[in-house]
Amino acid sequence: MDIVIKGRHTTVPERFRNHVTEKLAKLDKIAHKVIRVDVEVTAEANPRQTDHSERVELTLHSKGPVIRAEAAAADRYAALDLATDKLIGRLRKAADRRRVHRGNRTPISVAAATAGLDGGAIPAQPTPAPVAVTVVEEPPDAYAVPDTGPMVVREKTHRAEPMTLDQALYEMELVGHDFYLYVDADSKMPSVVYRRRGYDYGVIRLDV
Prior knowledge:
Helix content is 27%, strand content 26%. By secondary structure, it is of the alpha/beta class. The chain has a domain at 2-141: Double Stranded RNA Binding Domain (2-Layer Sandwich). The strands form two sheets. It has a five-stranded mixed sheet. Strands 6-7-8 form a three-stranded antiparallel sheet, with helices on one face. A hairpin with a 6-residue loop joins β6 (179-183) and β7. The longest helix is centred in the middle third of the chain and has 27 residues, at 76-102. The protein starts with a strand and ends with a strand.
């Protein structure tokens, strides 16, 4: 398992790097076939955000879906603890789902269960290897933007394999987002599933 540590608007000292390595070493016991864990540490310069001035984002890459967790706290050690707990919880949820679907009591799909519902609302679903560490430091102006025009703070490009609505909902939960962009396996349309109020979800599809 490789651990890649990246600092945004901050440096990553040796002491914290070693702490991250020790903290994340336990992931090998929970999730098999982990390839890489990206650790991004961000420092917030806004004095009004002192209680959440340090943010840690963890992204786990394996042969399965990407699993992500992030947390913010007054210091990066506390933020790392919170993010790691979230990541472990999502790993266990993914493992439980695999065990259920391999057994004889495979649950009905979300799409099938809600096919006859008005509005298509979707209820919530029930619920040590060698380590290589890489540190990537970014200069403070790495995310500089022009003085005029919209501010684009981050851009990401992901490979997209067609998937079902059920799988998109599942992967949205694993990354901890309120929305998930995917290509629908049936319609082949670019689609977004998103969380609505309560336990409902919505889907937007682009007809291109």
